[in-house]
Amino acid sequence: MLVLARRVLILAAISVALHPSTGFSAGAKLTHEYDLKATFLFHFAQFVEWPAETLPDKAPFTIGIIGNDPFGKSLDEIVANETVEGHKLVVRRFQNVSQIDSCQILFVAPSEASRLDQLLSHLNSRSVLTVGDSRDFALRSGIIGFVISDKRLRLVVNLAAANAAKLTISSKLLRQSEIVGPAPVRE
Fold first, then answer.
1. Would you state the pLDDT for residue 1?
2. Which residues touch 149 (CB under 8 Å, ≥6 apart)?
3. How many CB atoms neighbour CB 45 within 10 A?
4. Whole-number CA gyration radius for the chain
5. 105-108 vs 61-66, strand pairing mode
6. Is residue 143 scored above 60 in pLDDT?
7. What kind of architecture, by CATH, is found in domain 2-175?
8. Given the DSSP bridges, would you call strands 144-149 and 168-169 parallel, antiparallel or unpaired?
9. Distance from C-alpha of 177 to C-alpha of 12, rounded to nearest angstrom
10. Helix axes 2-18, 30-47, angle to 10 degrees
11. Does 119 or 27 have the greater pLDDT score?
């Protein structure tokens, strides 16, 4: 049953990402909102490219959460037994920025909104995909922000922040996102 529920969540997230007319009901329970966001975190691993040196052979691909975890068990269940390009997916929880060592995707919980600038500054020179849902997350140099607009879960992407982190975001994801910040320079 868990496998079926996980597949339904994954299909829902893909549908929302690739078909903007599909929506998330803002009236749904908070748990469902974070189940959907957890599914997006999982799929970001497939829509973003990291520099090769950021993920050594046999190292796990880490999705981190900093602050009070809003996902419960859903993120752990979604990534259980999954891999990304041969790397086992793991979820780690951090209480402060100094604990973050190896992490490819970092969800910044709403509890960290007041420390967002400090946290992003600490990660400035690292190839970490920062994701959050606090107000103006992407405008404050986070890479992907979740926003609920017109009862739909939308993505806001800061291309300048992604470029600074040496991350390449798939055009499939970008087409369905609101882009903020200056566009990266292409050679």
1. 40
2. none
3. 20
4. 15
5. parallel
6. yes
7. 3-Layer(aba) Sandwich (3.40)
8. unpaired
9. 16
10. 70
11. 119
Q: What is the pTM of this model?
A: 0.82
Per-residue pLDDT reduced to its tens digit, 61-106: 999 999 999 999 999 999 999 999 899 999 999 999 889 988 999 9
* 39-43, 140-144, 178-182, range with the lowest pLDDT: 178-182
Among residues 49, 51, 142, 55, the alpha carbon closest in space to that of 90 is found at: 55
As to burial, measured by CB atoms within 10 angstroms (0-12 exposed, 13-18 middle, 19+ buried), residue 35 is buried
C-beta separation of 166 from 55 below 8 A:
no
Q: What values do phi and psi take at 145, rounded to 5?
A: -110, 135
Burial 123-150 (b: 16+ CB within 10 A, else e): beeebbbbbbbbeebbebbbbbbbeeee
